[in-house]
Records
---
Amino acid sequence: MVEAVESEQNEPQYKEYAIEEFLVRSEPYYRPVGDELELFTAAYNQHIPVLLKGPTGCGKTRFVEYMAWKLGRPMTVVRPLDSGLPPQDLREGEVRVPLVTIACHEDLTASDLVGRYLLDSEGTRWIDGPMTRAVKAGAILYLDEVVEARKDTTVLIHPLTDHRRILPVEKTGQIIEADDRFLLCISYNPHYQSALKDLKHSTRQRFISVEFDYPPADIEAEIVQKESGCSEEQASALAKLGEKVRNLRDHGLAEGASTRLLIYAGRLMREGIPPRRACQVAIVWTLTDEAELQRSVEEVVSSIFE
Amino acid sequence: MSNAPFDELETELGKFPPAVLDAYRESLEAMESSFSSEELLLWAKEGSAIAGQTVRSWESAVEYYRVCPKVARSLAFPSFMQWARCGTYLSQDSPALAVSFFKASPSIVSNLRPQYIPRWAGLGRSLYKGTWKSSTLSSRFFEVSPDLIRSLPFWDVEVFASLVEALSYKSYDIAVECLTLGKDVLPAMGREREAFLAMCRALSDGNWREVKSCFEVAPKALQQVDEGQTSRFLKLGERLTKVGIRDTSRFLTDGSNALSQIPTGSQAHILDLCEGLLAVTPEAVPCFLKSLDSVTHRVTLNQLDTWFHHGVQLLKDNPESGIAFFKVESNTSESLLETLSSSLELDRVKGVVRLYCRALSGSPIEVMNTQELVRRNIGWVDEDTASTDGTKVFLPPVVDHYQDKSQNFSWFKVVATHQVGHLEFGSFFYDFSKPALQFEEERRYALERERGAQQISDDVLLGDMEPDGQMRAYTDIGRFLSLFDNRRLAFDIFTVLEDCRLDYRIKAEYPGIRRTAIDVQSDTLSRRPEVEDLPLQEALVELLIRMSLDQFNNLPIPVDFREEATMLAQILYVLRSVSANVEDTAEATLRAYEIISRLENETQPEDQWEPEDMEEPGEFSEEEFQSLLDKLQASQDSSGDAGEGDPYDSPEPVDYRGDFKPEMVQLLTKLQMDQNQQGEGEPLSQEMLEQLLQDSAELELDAEQGDINNSTSTFAQNIMKEAGVPPPNSQPGQGYGPLLHDDDQGGELEAREPKTYVYDEWDFRANDYKPRWCVVKEKSLDEGDSNFYNDSLKNYSTLLSHIKRQFELIMPETFRKIYRMVDGEDIDLNAALEAAADIRMKVPPDEKIYWRRNKIERDVSVVFLLDMSASTAEAIDEGRHTVDDRDAPDDPVEYMVWLRRRREGLVRRHYKRIIDLEKESTALLIHALESIGDNYGIYGFSGYGRENVEFYVIKDIEENFSERIKRRIDKITPLHATRMGSAIRHAITKLENQDSPTKIMFLISDGRPQDRGYSREGVEKEYAVHDTHMALLEAKRKDITPFCLTVDKAGHDYLQEMCGDMGYEVLGDIWALPERLPMLYRQLTA
């Protein structure tokens, strides 16, 4: 035991959770811009699945995290906890709202979500996939960039997102009714150019849609400062830069500078990287490879930062 | 067959050396099959005649008999005999000559038309002058003839022979060498051969030794010159030679070296220059070409022109110094290059500046040359001053203030930021009724009431019931400025103060630009006129300018007016705040005007001035201001009339701030707005506008009185055109009058001919379709040469292999086995073995032990629509003015003339055109599409008017790829206009019949849709854009994915509207089209 304590300093430190046991324990920073908190809470209470639309890096994922945290701390206790052996102890009054996030990709199949039989030394064994676990545990299931997933995943999404709230598990021949706290939430970036990847209307119409966009300059400055720890001046200059660069969205840039990138730039500045250089690596070069555009954005940077 | 004559002949031949008879007998057999016996006899006798000519002519006869069988194969008997006679004559002169002639003949006669044979023989004969050397030359000629005749037209051979003959008079050796060189050099040449020979011919008269060197250097030199220009280049050489310039071969090498450094499209221009120079001083041409390379490394081609013309001027005055200039061996030349190379042309940075302005302002601003603004003639006159009209920023074409490019660019940036600042910080959004933020009292209302009362009393006095004030109130700025008697003074103060506010604001908002801005300001300060020399009013305005340029120390202040100057400084200081708005500027103007206008505009004596610091003038207070005003008023009242002294004159403009014309901008915006809200209120008539312009202080109408009326009315017309207001001749009183274009009237059309189709068109104003409005005529494109297709593939071979690889990546997914799957067609042996091993080891194995084929079947149908409008004939040349469709006349006849003129102007160039790149891209795309087997159709569209939308089939969607399609690509040419909507609708029809699950329509264009009558009531652009948008929507409703690709850099402006949320891309760099098109397609369907 003593040795273990000694080596603790150098050992890599990480925490391991079972997927459905991951709770957002400390309050994530989220700065609401509109009524999205109320909307999400209402939808959660009413079991209405939520679709988050918006450009990359504008805070969709952070929002879901924040909601998972917030919903775990209701003013009044909704229902007592199941007994058992929670790896993470809940404090008094807390509700277990785990967050299961799945980044979708083009090879993501239905069985990756639902689960499958595994071979092991004694034979075969059924393993629940993340979706099944989320359904059972009553988690917020967040499918990021859902259009990327294979088409067969819609077979799972549909019965889960209407009044039935069930998950058919074909291979085991079971149907799982979702826990009362379960909510499906997906995100979607409407600016995709591929004709083959679009959300079908039958899918879309099972969700309420909350639109996200980059926050207005003053709020964005607040966010950047809070998240990156740079100075107030730098933060508002970065927000200004973000606003200006986004003006180019329809003039050659595929996407504007995301809040996330602004925060990166802010963090670099906090570490002492000169502002122009920080913006160059965090924003200009990230956004585009086209020389003329790069130059233009750099000129904007050099106007805003000394 | 009687043998007697033949026997006789044999006897005859027997008299010669036996070789003759042997040769005869040998070929006789072969000849018998070709000729009849009579003919055969004539043939045989000719041989004997040859042999009998001279002592040694039996050798010729031997050769004659030897080649006859081969020659006879290509010639009919009469021509054959003609040929033989030629040989006979030659052997008369020299048997050796005849031998060479006969030897060369077999390969000649098959390549040369028979009637040319005697001429050919004559060419060889003409080289023979009876001497041994000449006979060698002549024989040599016959020896090389087969090579020449095979690959050269006969007249070129004749010219060459005459060149050789001319040389032979000078030196047989040179002649022989040139002959030998020519055999290799000439066939390799193309059209330029003629010019080359002409040049050599010119040389042979004078500096004949050069001919040989020219032959030696030509192949390499000419390779470096653009194919289309070689003839001109050689012609230049010829002309130089004729005026006596020696060293032609040097010219060839140096010249071609120089040209090879010039971009292909511009070589013609360089040759233009050379030709111009030739007319002035031929000696300068080689010097110019020689220094060209180093010069073009330092300056751009446009700048080269400036340098060149300077040199030409010098040449005319003093040829010596001119030549030194072109050799870049003179100071003038060197320093001019220095200045030119550090100067910065707007065209080179326009793209960056435009995006910069758009980023700052957030609106689709265009950046243009100031010359453009002057050309429009709507009131801006200065070509060197930046300005903005609210949607475009105008910048001077060249900046050469500094000796350093980056500094010159910074200047551009400061100027552009200032102009955009007018938009960003609201100079043009002045609203009379909006409260100022910094000033507590709203003096303008009081003033307006005061003036209003005065006005009415004036009107009553004059009996004039036309209230002037109402007119001026058309814009808010106008309403404000009409409060002042001396509008010029008021406007000047307003300009200075607003610029001061902007400069302060910009420095606060954009700290990065602060340093440069300060540099530019202090630079400007150093060029300001002396305050002391100016009369009082102007001096005070000048003081304001200086303070606005951040000079607060050492300001010369007239001692008697210290109080006033301090008050002005206080007023100005109010605007130095980030929260000051344009309404504050107006209030400040009003106060400053009240002071300055009450002073006499007289020059102050020199000792009256004292330098003073104004850094802390103190807070502005209304009470102090009022008391100063009362004091001034009192002294004014006591001394009689106000503002006596010199007439007031505007200050020197501050160059980097440019022209500020808020009233004009508000006017234009208002006109445009009124235009868009039809029917509400009475629109401004041209007369009213003229009146307005005349009152405006912004226009510099310092022309003669007669001209003023003239020019205001031109301005007024142009302004109305600018704002999109229909010309006032459209029946005033009836609102906007009937429709403008003939063909807008008339009704539905019918498809009478086969392969014509009728489509509706969307009228966004009516919010409904115009039924059966356009006729689309489908035609198959003519077939040209398939070389274009093949050449394109060859030229882009690297890119092609890249594209192919990319496409292959999509394709094989259909067939590819995917390993390590959870389930599949069969067991993946590798994975299974691993799993088995794991089980043995009691480790949970990976369950992915199957493989399967990817079942996704690719089934895509796609239609490509190519824009074949006249504008695609535009040459691609950086910096060249883009064709502006806005000038297209509405009248059909004029329109055709305009189109033709525009097309002709461009076709003559040798540059690549947009359409060429479209064609090349199509070739590449077809190649790629063939490799993945998508179902595709390629169509071009153009047309003229709604009854004539041309839809050209390059490859129908159901047609298979073939040579014919390759040939059709060659014939894609710029035609007429672009009525996109109907073309899209027809393409939809084509796609609708396909049953692929994925259907794509790919539109490739070079600009906004436009056509005669593709508009309603003069709102040219919008109508077309809306119709196209609707057509694209229709496509989308039919499950077709539309995608627009445009090479128009200004495309973002309307594509946003036209495509809505449908995909589009603006290609910034047109050269990227061949690469981008296949890649986009891949991205779209992968």
Note: The first helix of chain B runs from residue 4 to 14.
---
Amino acid sequence: MSWLTSSQTIALLVLLFPAAGALVLAGRGWRLPRKFTVIVGPGAVWAAFICVVNLLLNRVNADFTYWTWIKSGSFEVPFNLLIDNLSLFMGLVITGVGGLIVTYSVGYMEHEDDASYARFFTYMDIFILSMLLLVLAGNFVFLIIGWALVGLSSYLLIGFWYQRHSAVVAARKAFVMNVIGDVGMILGTFVLFVQYKSVTFSGVFQGVSGCPPPQFLVGCFPSVHRGPDSLAVELAAFLLLVGAVAKSAQLPLHTWLPDAMEGPTPVSALIHAATMVTAGVYLVARMHPIYDVATYAHGAVAITGAVTALLAATIAIVQVDIKRVLAYSTMSQIGYMFLAVGLGAYSAGMFHLLSHAFFKALLFLAAGNVIHAMKDEQDMRKFGGLWNDMRPTSITFLIGSLSLVGVIPFVGFFSKEQILGAAFSKPGDSAALILWGVGALTAVITGFYSGRMWWLSFWGKPSPDRPVEHPHAPRLVMMVPVGILAVLATVGGFIQTRALGVGPSIVSDFLDKVVTPQRWEENGAGIGVGIATMVLGAGLFWWARSLRPWSARFPWAQRLLEHKYYFDEIYDTVFVRPMDWVAGFALRDVEKPVIDGVVVDTGVLTRAGAAGLSVTQSGYFRNYVLVFVGGAVIAAVILIVKANS
Amino acid sequence: MSNLVIGGSTLDASWFLGLAAILFVLGTVGVLVRRNPLVILISIELMLNAANLALVTFSRQLQNYEGQLFALMSMTVAAAEAVVGLAILVDIFRTRDAEDIDDLSELKG
């Protein structure tokens, strides 16, 4: 195909490999040997990874338009892929971390029968495809398509064990919550289209920033354009934020994420920690020309993030399910990312996205090793003493935990500290200082709940309730991805030590070419306070070892946290029960008497009428003839009388 | 009413029409009262022939050949109708246990 340049072809192949993998597995996977599934499922992801790396090495930075998808008057939707440093960065995270997790699933899902095994990898490939479409899309329509498709694949994978009622309910909840976000995205796109008559990123951003191409992507500083359209831009930014909040499980649309832990653990690692839930962060970074102009919405992003970070971290203190602790910690960490992009430190937020993908995927996969060995038990109180039985898993989990807490030299320190430092040092913004305080408090709490999780699961004496006396070691195919992620979580931070004011800052240099650069540096006081926060967090991590029972001293606080601030109860009272009541009313008093009544009465009436009329149909030939002749005689008489008169 | 000259003798047209009326009524009564399907078919032929007779009479009286031509056509149709009707009857009585037309009354309401 001569009209496709090679970079253009490779960009398309990034999407086509997972699509082909999903199609092949969906069509034939379960009839063919399991070895085939094992090769095709992760293979498709790794092939996409190679394509992304190829684009990266060729320094591709382009907006490829392949064809016009819809054209109706002034409304035109092209199929275009925006390949720039931001989408390639996300593509690397999705296919790289995704590839490791899908490979890990080969071992984790081994107990499934052949059909379910192939179904799992089909869904995984569909997810990778949707997520890549989301980040590579060059216009709002395909962004929304990818956005909705990741919601769908998340639904399919949460409900993977569809025989379990709780899994089905959790999947439905996640889907409904995500659709709220989809509606926000679609409405936001409507507003932008009405205002700027375009659905492509380039068209909209050009209109918003008022900069000539190609500067509209980075903005043409120092002139930040605020025209008469600023109200529409604010509205669009808030509507897009609804989408981001729902997808990234931020307050107040966060309740689906802890329930989503019903899915298999690799799913939790890939979708509900490393990639999909960070899509909201990507969205805000991608829409930075809009948020740079829409200052109120931009502030709302930061506040949402900070509040979510704190509340989720406090809830994590009292959870006993290891995956739920990780789920709340994910919410909390994504809160940091929202805080960063909300402050305008886009590359700091994206760096934390990368680092979080490393250490949270590591934590989930290591937890998966434990759950797999414990015959699907997830209650931490029933583990205990796994240090002696599962040494490599314990060590990798510890690396992940320390990275989550943000201890030097693990990757989490550099990324989290860059965010907190950016908040602390943002010039001329006293509100940012409050947000820093919330973030720092969260960091300290993170130390506590991570410590509680690790000591409870791996230290001490084995719990008498432990389901397995001598847990088996994880298979090699499961341990290798965990090991790679552990290495990344340990040394990954050295690609960007900007938080300490020295050393390289590869991620920021890479991303600042396409997002608004952070125009201030962390001051010395910020570094000092950051290290103090880290020491405090690490201290609490250590202190959690000797602290039990955990929170008997404040029963009201424990109750509040165990009920997760009563969000589920409030939503149940405000939305679910009234809806149930309305539905019940409609069923009892509208559907049955009115709609059913009309239908049934119509039937009864028709039947009675038919019974009356059927008397005339005797079935005897001569009766019909008699009627016919009688009619003819009457007609003849009328004719004769008329002719004679 | 004008007279018609037939074979040297002169007859009033109403005689022919009267004969046609009698034949038609006989045919109608036959269709109505008889149960044997074969007889019913014959009665229908009788009615058709009565109609033909009326057609020819009026044609002759009005000096217009259309009526005679139409009588020829109606004979053709009658022949076709007899063929189809007989074929159906033969088939019905071969495949079904029916003695007369009253046994074929499944379509009653």
Note: Chain B touches chain A at residues 28, 31-33, 40, 101-102, 104-109 (CB under 8 Å).
